[in-house]
Amino acid sequence: MNRTPADRPVPADPGDDGGTTVAVTGAEGFIGSHLTEALVRAGHRVRAMVQYNSFSSYGWLETLPAEVREEVDIQLGDVRDPGSVHALIEGAEAVYHLAALIAIPYSYRAPHSYVDTNITGTLNVLEAVRRLGTPRLVHTSTSETYGTALTVPITEDHPINTQSPYAASKAGADRLADSYHASFGTPVVTLRPFNTFGPRQSMRAVIPTVIGQIAAGERTLTLGDLRPTRDFTFVKDTARAFLAVGTAPAAEVAGRTFNAGTGGEISVGDLVRLIGKLMSADLDVREDCARIRPANSEVMRLVADAGRLRAATGWRPAYDLESGLAETIAFFREPANLARYKTDIYNI
Fold first, then answer.
1. Which end of the chain is less crowded, N or C, counting CB atoms within 10 A of the terminal residue's CB?
2. Where does the NAD(P)-binding domain lie (predicted)?
3. pLDDT value, residue 294
4. What percent of the chain has pLDDT over 90?
5. Quick one: pLDDT at residue 326?
C-alpha cells in the first residue's frame, strides 16, 4: 500500500521502535549534540551531518560518551549542498533540522551567508524529505522571529517581526516549511525554542559569556545591554521538546508551529547577579558598546507561552533556571571544558 508522507506512521515512543535511524543536521553544535545524545538514549541510531571542515572535527559530538558515539554515524557535508542533504536523509524515519547560522551580531556583517545556510539549506532539506517520502521533519525556528513582545506571554499567533538579518532568514525558512506542508503535504513540524542555555553553548550567548569569564577568574565583566528580558530554557528540556514533536502522532503536530519555553522571564542584569551569587563572585559589570545591538534591532522582551506544545505532546520543562545554571556552571568549571573557549575576547 502506497502512503503519502503525512500518512506514514511515526512511533509515539522512540524507545519502542526497535532502533530506527533518524537524521540530524547541525548535530555537532550546542543543541544538536544534546539532541543527538537524547535520541540515542531513547533508542535511535543517529545519522549526524557535521559541516565539512578540513580538520575532520566533529565538534561537540567528539565529547559524547563512548556508548553514545557508537550509535552515531557521522557524515561530513553541508546543508547548502543538495547532494549532501539527500544522502543524509535517504532511509531515515525522521529528520531533525538544526543546521543554521545563529549569531545575531555576525548576521549584521554577513547577511548573505545567513540566507544561503538558513533559507537555501532549509529548502534543500524540505526537497529531500518531499522526494524521499520521509515520515517526519522537525524544522527549527527561533523566538527571535517574534521580535520585541507586543503581548506577553508570546503565543504562536504573535505577529512575526524580524529585527535582525538572522531573524529574517529564520522567518523565511519557517515560511518555506509552512508552504511545503500546504503545497505538498510534507510532514513538517516547526519547533520554536526560546533562548536555550546549558553545557556546550558558545560564548556568543550571554550565559556562557558570564559563567566563562567568572570561571576564568574575571570579576570585571564586559557585556552588552543589561535591560532585555528572556525566557531561558535548559538545553536538556529543549532536546526533550524536539523528541516530543518528532515522535507525536502526525495528526497532533504536522503542519504546526510550537513554542518551547518555560514561561519565566528574567532581565540580563538580574541574570548576571544570579550567576554571580551562584558562583560566589562579587562582580563589576560594565557595558561594552561593541556588544550592544543597533537600537531598532534589539529585542527587548521574550517570554514563551508553551501551552500548545504541552497540549499536543505533554511536554513541560523539568529544569528551573537555577538548576539549569548549576549544571552549566559545573560544566564550565571543568578545566578541560573551559579550555575550549576564548573567554578574553568578544565572541560573535
1. N
2. 24-328
3. 78
4. 84
5. 98
Residue with grid cell 533559507, as numbered in its chain:
119
Residue 12: is its pLDDT beyond 60?
no
Cα separations in angstroms, 199 against 60, 72, 234: 10, 20, 9
Distance (Å, whole) CA 88 – CA 108: 31
**Mind spelling out the 3-state secondary structure of the chain?**
CCCCCCCCCCCCCHHHCCCCEEEEECCCCHHHHHHHHHHHHCCCEEEEEEECCCCCCCHHHHHCCHHHHCCEEEEEECCCCHHHHHHHHCCCCEEEECCCCCCHHHHHHCHHHHHHHHHHHHHHHHHHHHHHCCCCEEEECCHHHHCCCCCCCECCCCCCCCCCHHHHHHHHHHHHHHHHHHHHCCCEEEEEECCEECCCCCCCCHHHHHHHHHHCCCCEEEECCCCCEECCEEHHHHHHHHHHHHHCCHHHHCCCEEEECCCCCEEHHHHHHHHHHHCCCCCEEEECHHHCCCCCCCCCECCECCHHHHHHHCCCCCCCHHHHHHHHHHHHHCHHHHCCCCCCCCCC
Domains of the chain (ranges, CATH numbers): 14-195+233-260 (3.40.50.720), 198-230+266-300+319-348 (3.90.25.10)
pLDDT number for residue 16:
40
